[in-house]
Amino acid sequence: MAGSRMISYILICLIMASLPVGVLATEATDHTDFIGKNNITKATDNFVQESEIKSISIKREKLLDNIYEYTFIFQVGDGDFDKIGVHRVVKEFRPWRPVKTNAGVMMTPGTMMDFTTTYMMSTQTDAPGIEIDHSLAIYLAKKNIDVWGIDHRRSFVPDLYPGTDIPYCYADPGNCSFMKDWDLSTQLNDVRTAINFARIIRSFTRQGNDQIFILGASRGGRLAYAYANEETQLPSYERNLKGIITVDTAYQFDRCAELWYCDNYSVPSTCNYTTASKAGCERCQILQSVYNSGRYYDDTAVSLKKIAYLADVLPDSPSPIIPGFTNHEVGELALSKSYIFKAPMKPLITRYHYCTGTFNETGHPTGLQFTNYDFIVDLAYNLDNFMSINCLIDEERVICDNCATCDNSPPVELTVNCPTDDVPYADHLDEITIPVLYVGGETGYGGYYGNYTISLLGSEDKTILIVPGYGHLDVLTGDNAKTDVWKPIYKWIEKQKD
To answer: 149 and 284 in one domain?
Structure first.
């Protein structure tokens, strides 16, 4: 019997040895793929059953090397566009099997953007000199950080109305009234759903069920503060956050903070001073008036896309927007002197701009200082055409702060009902005690103004980094953003993870 078993064993070994190595490896890998995918599918199914939402799709896509992106789409309401996307960007050691990561972070997107446009635009461009890994999300994933992100409901509204070349809300018979009730609380609920889901999947993929960080750039940073503010009212065992990272954003302002603003497109512009909080009250009034008129969407992105298109297709032609400038120059002005395009609404902060530019003695732009111009043109094409005005009103209510102004000067006289009492999104900032990092571009959309919000938090662990010269987008898209911004963010996460 022993001899028979030995002969059988030898025969099996010979047969196995004669098989191509790839056959054995493929069979083993396929089995592993199935188990890994099945685990994620089961975890997703369990989550939607408990959350009373619907799973629409799950997609896994290779980005580069062993970095993969997972995209989950969920139906979170009854409307056609009541959907959210949840992304995961992570390093894998086997298909559907992420490496043991050092920490998890949920990223909330910026103004008029989805997750990909904000944090992985390098995967969507063919601009010369831009490598596919030139993005914060991929940078962190390569460093073994488990990166998550959310696409808000606005990102599921088509840019154009079906069968036409007309922007969706312009042609929609309902005038996009489905956005009427999309406010800041809607976004907070969706972020909570995304974070809860991320923590469950992390647990199923052997990352543990630890709390995670939230990272928000631009408007995503305001949302991060609002989410952390709300979470202070939950029992500690129900809280999701381990720390907050905000990138170039200002949430509330010192009521005496001055704001320098310009009223028109002329160069040089006619400029004046006010206070930041007073400007927030005035913006709130304008937006509330538009909302009361029955228009529930903001279409700033459509205008920016028009500027980008003219600059891209007819760069040397005279601009129909600003006389005396070419389309290309106006494209650069929209990036490097962004504040002059806000009229009649006053800008958030003084002299803000998306990207720092260079100019000649006549005031004409001559280029961008830190960021690839073609890269930003591609980013403009990827903007979400429409946002909910209701969300913007809520944010301005936080800034307006009961329309208080500096010293004993009278408050703004409201001409429309812009409710500012008992704003729920900033009423517990002093109770936020988790670590916080703020990274601002010196001349961005938050800059030094963003420091004030940090001063309101109750945390004893506060870190502030202002990058000299950088504009609003430079912190995410700049040629040297990897060393100037992303590396400090990674080091801060590493410091906080234990």
So the answer is: no
